[in-house]
Amino acid sequence: MVTYEPEHRVRVPLLRAGWLTQTFLHWTYAPSLVQRLLPDGLTVDTYDGHAWVGLTPFVMADARPSGSPVALAAFAETNLRTYVRGPDGREGLWFLSIDVACPMMLAARAIGAPYHLGRLRLTRSGESVTYAGSRWRGDSAYRLTVRPGPPVRPTHRDVWLVSRWRAFTHGAGALWETPVEHEPWPLRAARLDGLTESMTRAAGLPTPAGQPLVHFSDGVHQVRFGLSRPVRPHPRR
């Protein structure tokens, strides 16, 4: 069961960071359309019978290896993600793509994290926040504007969508799990004032139908990433 509070402690983090000024856009898809994009060992997770795909632009701030006094300069990142269960049934994230403005993050490709280098930017105008990005290679791009509103008390569905405490990747012939810990997301209502995107199609999905579910968060500041480790196949009964 997905929990609002962290599911576990990351006692020896490899990386610390903050995820700030984050918007969550979510669309529903038929589970079969998402399942075909997953590697062996992962099963699409569903809510109300639907698979969900999220577009989440944000700012990665104060990223530093544990114990380092020097942090990277803040940079923009945008994830296209979906929700899965691992071989043992535990919930996690699967990233369909990760667009980033920091070349150093590409090192995570070693365990299959789908990083793409691109031009990404975030701008504010009055009460509105605009995110835009385009990939250096390929035709994947997006531009969206949101107007954050008042704080909201997360519903059960909201918690299911935003509170995930591990991410899965597939690389070097193995499925990998990376644990993460941070304070609960402080969510705000938000209005979507404009959206164009080709990231879903670039990931192998149809263009989303209908308007997305929208949330905004000022962010979480104490993000702790643990050691990535291979996932052992769950024994058959």
Put simply, the count of helices is 3
Order of helices and strands: EHEEEEEEEHEEEHEE
Sheet having the most strands: 13 strands, mixed
For the record, what is the CATH homologous superfamily label?
A: Acetoacetate decarboxylase-like
CATH topology: Acetoacetate decarboxylase-like
Count of DSSP E strands? 13
The first-level CATH class is given as Mainly Beta
Give the overall form.
globular
> C-alpha Rg, in Å?
17 Å
The assigned structural class equals: mainly beta
**Low-confidence blocks of residues:** none
N- to C-terminal distance: 22 Å
Tally of structural domains: 1
- The residue-averaged pLDDT reads 94
Kindly estimate the percentage of residues that lie in beta strands according to DSSP: over 45%
Q: Which CATH-level-2 architecture? A: Beta Barrel
Percent range of helical residues: under 10%
Describe this structure as you would to a colleague:
The protein contains 3 helices and 13 strands; from the N terminus they run E-H-E-E-E-E-E-E-E-H-E-E-E-H-E-E. The mean pLDDT is 94. Strand 9 and strand 10 (174-181) form a beta hairpin. It has helices at residues 31-35, 156-162, 199-202, and strands spanning 15-29, 43-44, 51-65, 75-85, 91-100, 115-125, 128-135, 141-151, 166-171, 174-181, 187-197, 213-225, 229-230. The longest helix has 7 residues, at 156-162. Strands 1, 2, 3, 4, 5, 6, 7, 8, 9, 10, 11, 12 and 13 form a 13-stranded mixed β-sheet that branches. The protein is mostly beta strands. The chain has a single domain, classed as Acetoacetate decarboxylase-like (Beta Barrel).
